[in-house]
From TrEMBL, chain A:
Keyword Metal-binding: no
Pfam families: BPD_transp_2
InterPro entries: ABC_transp_permease (IPR001851), ABC_UrtB_bac (IPR017779), BCAA_transport_permease (IPR052157)
Record flagged with keyword Ribonucleoprotein: no
Gene Ontology biological-process annotations: amino acid transport
Protein name (database record): Urea ABC transporter membrane protein
Record-level Gene Ontology MF annotations: transmembrane transporter activity
GO cellular component: plasma membrane
Originating organism: Glycomyces sambucus
TrEMBL record, chain B:
GO biological process terms on file: amino acid transport
InterPro entries: ABC_urea-bd_UrtA, Leu_Ile_Val-bd, Peripla_BP_I
Any single Pfam family the record assigns to this protein: Peripla_BP_5
Highest rank taxon of the organism: Bacteria
Signal peptide: 1-35
Name of this protein: Urea-binding protein
Record keywords: Signal
C-alpha cells in the first residue's frame, strides 16, 4: 500500500512535468489545430535561456526566478516569429505545417549546436531546491515539488486568462467557431498570434523549469515532444482540463507500470493503453462542444 | 560502445527514421549483394609508389554522435601528425582522407566502401557505436581492408579485418566488478539504457554475480534519452543495494544523477559505477551531482606517465587548453601508432602482411604499454577505476596488476561459459 501511495505521488510529479511540457501545446495544437513539431525546440530554447541567465547572474536561485519570465518571452517571441513568417501562410494545410515545423525544429537544434556546442551544458540547481522531502513513505526531490507548484500556477494562470480576460474570451470564441467569431468583429489573425505567443511562451517556461531535473543539450526538446502530444491528444483537443487529467493519469500509469517492470517496458505499456483508449474514444477525455459546422 | 549522447528522436522523426532505416536496409542489402559478387575482382588499389600513403578517418562529424566522435577525429589527426613528424611510415608521409559517418550506420558502411575503393586508403580509423562497427564489418571483410576501432564495446566479436583498440568486457566491466567485490559490495542494482551494450553488459554482470555470491536486487532499463527517473531512483533507494552499476548512455545520465543526489543518495552510502561517463560528460551532468562517483575505463587524463604528459600537452597545444582527453580518444591515438608500428615491422602496407605481423606489436601509450594480440586483434589494456573529483576530472583509485590480456569471448572465465554460447 505504501508503495502504491508513493508511486501515485511519483505519478503526480511525473504528470506535472508532462503537463508543463504539454500546456503550451494544448493551446497551439489543441486550440488552434497547429501541429507544431518545433514545440520541443521552444522548450530547449527555455533550457538555454536558463543557462545564459545563470551565466550572467551567477546565483542559481535568483537566476531561476529571473529566467522564468525571460524564458516565457524568449519562447513567445520565437513562436510569434514562426507564426508570422511561416504558419500564417499554412493554416488549413496541416501536413505542410507539420513538415515545416519539423524542419524549423531541426534548424533550431543545429543553431543551438553552433552557438552553445554539442555537449550538454550544466545549469546548477539552487541550493534551496537540492535534496528531498519525505512524504508518505517516499522521498520527493524538492525540484519536483517546485515543478508541481509551477505547473499548478501555470494552469491556473492560463485558465484565468482564458476565462476572465477579453483576450481569453476572444481566443475561446475563435476556437469555438472561427467564422462566427470573425463576423462578430474579432480579428482572428491577431488572436492566432496571441495564442501562439502564449503557447510558445509556456514552452519556454517549461524549458527553464526542466533544467532542474534534466539535461540541457540541443536535442533536449525532442525527449519531451512525443509525451506532450500524447497528453494533448489523450486529454481531448482544446481542453485545458483534459490536458491536466491526462498528464496526471499518464504519469501515474507510467509510475505504476514501472513498479512492476522496467521503465522501457512501462513506456510500451503506456503507449498500448493510449492506443486502446483512443480506439474507444478518439476524441480524447473531454471534448469541446461547438456549433461549428467544420 | 555504443551511442553516448544519444537522444531519442521521436514521433514523426521516428516514422521518418523507420522508413529511412528501411530504405537504408534495402540499399545495404543491394550493395551487399553487389559487393559479394565482386569479391573475387577486388584487388587492393592502395598506391605505395609515391611519397605519401593515404589513410581514412571515418567519424560522425554531424548528427547526435558528433559530440563524441569529433574528439576522436582530433586524436587521430594528432597521432598522424606525430608519425609524420617522426619521418612517416616506411619513409612515406601519411595523408588523412576524412569522411563523415553522420551518426548513421548505413552511411558508415557507404563511406568505408568509398574510402577503400575510391580513395584507396591503406587503413581506416574510426567508428564509435556498435551499430556503426557492425555495419562496416562486412565492407572491410569483403574488400579485405583494415579498420581500427577505438571504443570500448560489448565484446563477443573478432574479425580478421578489424583491430579493436578499446577495451573488451574483460578489460573494463569485469575489473569493475572485481573492484566492487574487493571493496565489500554484496548486492548490486543495475540501471541501463535499453539497447545491445547495456543488455549484454548486464548479462555478464548477472553471470558474474551468481558465480561470486553477489545479489542483484534489481535490473532496470530506460529508453535511450529518457529523463524520467523518479520511480527507478526510488526503487534503487528502497532496494538499498551496496552499489549501482550504471550502463546508461548520454543525456539520461544527467537526469539520473540529479535525481539520485536529490533523494539523498551519495557516493558514500551507495556508489554508482558507470562505464559510459568520461571527462567530457562530467561537465554536462554537473560536478556537484556526481562528485565521488566511480567510473571504469582504461585511461584518464590524469594518468601519470611520461607518455600521457606528452599526449595531453600535445593535444592541448593543438586544440586548446580547455579541451580534455578521454579514453576513446586515447585508444584512437594509440590505434594510429600501432598501425604505423605494424607496417614498419611488416615492411609492407599490404593487408595480409600487416595482419601477419600484428601479433606482439606494442606501443608505449598514455595508458601504459599496449600489445596487439594476433589471434583476436584486440590489445592488452590496463583496467582503471576512476573517481570523479571536484575539478571535473577522474582520478585513478584502483588499477589492475599490469595490462590485462584481451578475452572478447570470455573463454577464460568458467562462469561466463553460457554467455558466449548464447550469443
Amino acid at each position: 500500500m505504501d508503495l502504491l501511495v508513493g508511486q501515485l505521488l511519483t505519478g503526480l510529479s511525473t504528470g506535472s512535468i508532462l503537463l508543463l511540457a504539454a500546456l503550451g501545446l494544448s493551446l497551439t495544437f489543441g486550440q488552434m489545430g497547429v501541429v507544431n513539431m518545433a514545440h520541443g525546440e521552444f522548450i530547449m530554447a527555455g533550457c538555454y535561456t536558463a543557462y545564459v541567465v545563470q551565466q550572467v547572474v551567477g546565483d542559481a536561485g535568483v537566476s531561476l526566478l529571473i529566467a522564468l519570465p525571460i524564458g516565457f518571452l524568449v519562447g513567445g517571441a520565437m513562436g510569434l516569429v514562426l507564426e508570422a513568417l511561416l504558419l500564417r501562410r499554412l493554416y488549413h494545410r496541416p501536413l505542410d505545417t507539420l513538415l515545416v515545423t519539423f524542419g524549423v525544429g531541426l534548424v533550431l537544434q543545429q543553431a543551438a549546436r553552433d552557438v552553445f556546442g554539442a555537449p550538454a551544458v550544466n545549469v546548477s540547481v539552487p541550493e534551496a531546491l537540492r535534496g528531498g522531502v519525505d512524504l508518505l513513505g517516499t522521498t520527493v526531490p524538492r525540484t519536483r515539488l517546485f515543478i508541481m507548484a509551477l505547473a499548478v500556477l501555470a494552469v491556473t494562470a492560463v485558465a484565468l486568462v482564458l476565462r476572465f480576460t477579453p483576450a481569453g474570451r476572444r481566443i475561446r470564441a475563435v476556437t469555438g467557431n472561427r467564422d462566427l467569431a470573425e463576423t462578430a468583429g474579432i480579428s482572428s489573425r491577431r488572436v492566432d498570434a496571441a495564442t501562439f505567443f502564449i503557447g510558445s511562451g509556456l514552452a519556454g517556461v517549461a524549458g527553464v523549469a526542466l533544467t532542474l531535473i534534466g539535461s540541457t543539450s540541443p536535442t533536449t526538446g525532442q525527449s519531451y515532444l512525443v509525451d506532450a502530444f500524447l497528453v494533448v491528444v489523450a486529454g481531448g483537443l482544446g481542453r485545458i482540463k483534459g490536458a491536466v487529467v491526462a498528464a496526471v493519469a499518464l504519469g501515474a500509469l507510467q509510475a505504476v507500470f514501472e513498479t512492476y517492470s522496467t521503465a522501457s517496458l512501462a513506456k510500451v505499456g503506456v503507449f498500448v493503453v493510449i492506443v486502446v483508449f483512443l480506439q474507444l474514444r478518439p476524441q480524447g477525455l473531454f471534448t469541446l462542444r461547438t456549433r461549428s459546422l467544420a | 560502445m555504443p551511442l553516448r549522447p544519444t537522444p531519442e528522436v521521436r514521433g514523426l522523426a521516428r516514422a521518418l527514421a523507420a522508413s529511412a532505416a528501411l530504405a537504408g536496409l534495402l540499399a545495404t542489402a543491394a550493395c551487399g549483394a553487389r559487393a559479394g559478387e565482386e569479391t573475387v575482382a577486388t584487388e587492393s588499389c592502395v598506391d605505395t609508389s609515391g611519397d605519401t600513403v593515404k589513410v581514412g578517418s571515418l567519424n560522425s562529424l554531424s548528427g547526435t554522435m558528433a559530440i563524441s566522435e569529433t574528439t576522436v577525429r582530433d586524436a587521430i589527426a594528432l597521432a598522424v601528425a606525430e608519425v609524420n613528424a617522426a619521418g612517416g611510415v616506411q619513409g612515406k608521409q601519411i595523408e588523412i582522407v576524412a569522411e563523415d559517418g553522420a551518426s548513421e550506420p548505413t552511411v558508415f558502411a557507404e563511406k568505408a566502401e568509398k574510402l577503400i575503393r575510391e580513395d584507396c586508403v591503406a587503413a581506416v580509423f574510426g567508428g564509435w557505436t556498435s551499430a556503426s562497427r557492425k555495419a562496416m564489418l562486412p565492407v572491410f571483410e569483403d574488400n579485405d581492408s583494415l579498420l581500427y576501432y577505438p571504443v570500448q564495446y560489448e565484446g563477443l566479436e573478432a574479425s580478421e579485418n578489424i583491430f579493436y583498440t578499446g577495451a573488451t568486457t574483460n578489460q573494463q566491466i569485469i575489473p569493475a566488478l572485481d573492484y566492487l567485490a574487493e571493496t565489500g559490495v554484496e548486492s548490486l542494482y543495475l540501471v541501463g539504457s535499453d539497447y545491445v551494450f547495456p543488455r549484454t553488459a548486464n548479462a555478464i554482470i548477472n553471470a558474474y554475480a551468481e558465480a561470486h555470491g553477489i545479489e542483484v536486487l534489481g535490473e532496470d532499463y530506460v529508453t535511450l534519452g529518457s529523463t524520467e527517473f523518479s520511480t527507478i531512483v526510488n526503487q534503487v533507494k528502497s532496494a538499498d543495494a551496496d552499489a549501482v552499476f550504471n550502463t546508461l548512455n548520454g543525456d539520461s545520465n544527467v537526469a539520473f544523477f540529479r535525481e539520485y543526489a536529490n533523494v539523498g543518495l551519495t557516493a558514500a552510502d551507495m556508489p554508482v559505477m558507470s562505464v559510459s561517463i568520461a571527462e567530457e560528460e562530467v561537465g554536462g551532468i554537473g560536478v556537484e551531482n556526481i562528485e565521488g562517483q566511480l567510473a571504469a575505463w582504461n585511461y584518464y587524463q590524469t594518468v601519470e606517465s611520461p607518455a600521457n604528459t606528452a599526449f595531453v600537452e600535445a593535444f592541448k597545444a593543438e586544440y586548446g587548453a580547455e579541451r580534455v582527453t578521454s579514453d576513446p580518444m586515447e585508444a584512437a591515438y594509440n590505434s594510429v601508432h600501432l598501425w604505423a608500428a605494424t607496417v614498419e615491422k611488416a615492411g609492407s602496407f599490404a593487408v595480409a602482411d600487416v595482419q601477419a605481423a600484428a601479433d606482439g606489436v606494442s606501443f608505449d601509450s598514455p595508458e601504459g604499454t599496449v600489445v596487439i594480440d594476433g589471434d583476436n586483434h584486440h590489445v592488452t589494456k590496463t583496467a582503471r577505476i576512476g573517481e570523479i573529483a571536484a575539478d571535473g576530472l577522474l582520478y585513478t583509485v584502483w588499477e589492475s596488476d599490469g595490462p590485462i590480456e584481451p578475452d572478447p569471448f570470455l573463454e577464460g572465465y568458467d562462469w561466463a561459459a553460457d554467455l558466449a554460447v548464447t550469443e
